[in-house]
């Protein structure tokens, strides 16, 4: 907090870039002590989606197989019996590996369209959306605005949320959304792990970081995991092929 005061920054204005600068300057004991503080501020909405590097990444164990992952994504995009908000949240998790804590803080100004298609800016750069998901988001924005018309108006301090809560200036509860998704057979952790693993096998870590706001350390860890698993898979295939020739 002293450092924030020296930088003339409010806690609510702390960004990942600011935090990274502080981490470089801080002592090891300070970095260790403040990990819990940042988790606390994230949980209470005082800071937005800050990731604290240096914590060991436990190996993910929950995944979906490709067929199940694609089936769940198809349901999110096409099943009109599912609630609209859950369809959007489920698709964002399965396409881009976004955590619920970030999804509930997305604002409508991240969405835009031009002659080339519809885009959403999750972090630094716009991401091209599938047309079906773009239509769902358009519908959600219209629905959210009609609900918000009866409540407090959004302001610069409380921008218009894609998933408005009650009141509209407050985000939805990630825990409640997770429970609702589970009731519809749409788990969050396994789906997010599967999406991140898939992206890590196809995109450089820096691209994943810039497009989806994944901390670079985390993106590098996923890339290493994907590379190791792919190497193991190729080794298994080569071993099987060799045994057939023997």
How would you summarize this macromolecular structure in one to three sentences?
This protein has 246 residues and is mainly α. The chain contains eleven helices and three strands; from the N terminus they run ααααααβββααααα. The chain has a three-stranded antiparallel β-sheet with strand order 1-2-3, with helices on one face.
Describe the structure.
With 246 residues, the chain is mainly alpha-helical. Helix content is 57%, strand content 5%. The protein is built from 11 helices and 3 strands. The protein has helices at residues 2-6, 16-25, 28-43, 66-78, 84-96, 100-103, 131-148, 174-183, 189-200, 205-212, 216-245, and strands at 111-114, 117-121, 126-128. It has a 3-stranded antiparallel beta sheet, with helices on one face. Strand 2 (117-121) and strand 3 (126-128) form a beta hairpin. Helix 5 (84-96) packs across helix 7 (131-148), helix 5 (84-96) runs parallel beside helix 9 (189-200) and helix 10 crosses helix 11 (216-245). The termini are far apart. The model has no long low-confidence stretch (mean pLDDT 82).
Taking pLDDT < 50 over at least 5 consecutive residues as the criterion, the unreliable ranges are none
Figure out the total of helices.
11
What is the gyration radius calculated from CA atoms?
A: 20 Å
Sheet with most strands: strand arrangement: 1-2-3
The biggest beta sheet reads: 3 strands, antiparallel
- Let me know the average pLDDT: 82
Helix and strand content put the structural class at mainly alpha
Give the amount of beta strand, in percent.
Answer: under 5%
Work out the helicity level. 55-70%
Order of helices and strands: HHHHHHEEEHHHHH
What is the overall shape? globular
Beginning-to-end CA distance, first to last residue: 67 Å
Number of strands: 3
